[in-house]
Design a protein that fits this description.
single chain; 160 residues; mainly alpha; 7 helices; globular
């Protein structure tokens, strides 16, 4: 009966769906690694929406070398990429090319197919970056869209 902010809950739900597609498994909402991951993402979005974050988006080559609070974002990005890289290592160890279970398995299989092609886009850096992008961009846009839909429903009880 009391008001609440569904932002974090929606982000967790959306992230878990993306995790099931990308990593092949869902996380418990109390899992420390998952909560740390969600915290990293929230910090990134918060920083990217600040004045420093907007300046960084316009002038990344310059601001990369300047001191300021925008530099914290690099640590957050590194933490997320480390999480993804760890998941990739786990997938490499258990990969069955005849039965891919998720996005990472499919990408690893394609990497193996094209290992002799020097112009292939299927390499480790692209795998980590693509997975990172799917996870980060997919979570924010989808949860924001659902939140906006909930707001519209609240403002229009007859349609609700």
């Amino acid at each position: 009966g009391a008001p609440f902010d569904p932002t974090f809950m929606l982000s967790c739900a959306v992230s878990n769906v993306i995790c099931s597609i990308v990593f092949g498994r869902r996380y418990d909402y109390k899992d420390k690694r998952f909560l740390s991951l969600m915290n990293n993402m929230n910090n990134i979005f918060e920083m990217m929406n600040s004045h420093w974050g907007q300046l960084y988006q316009m002038f990344p080559n310059i601001l990369y070398y300047l001191p300021g609070p925008h530099n914290r974002i690099f640590a957050e990005f590194d933490a997320l990429k480390a999480f993804v890289a760890e998941e990739v290592k786990v997938h490499q160890a258990s990969l069955d090319p005849s039965s891919p279970q998720d996005f990472i398995d499919c990408f690893l299989s394609k990497m193996e197919e094209e290992k002799n092609n020097p112009d292939s886009s299927f390499h480790m850096k692209n795998l980590i970056t693509s997975t990172f992008d799917l996870f980060l961009a997919g979570t924010e846009t989808t949860s924001t869209t659902i939140r906006y839909g909930l707001l519209l429903l609240l403002k229009n009880p007859k349609i609700q």
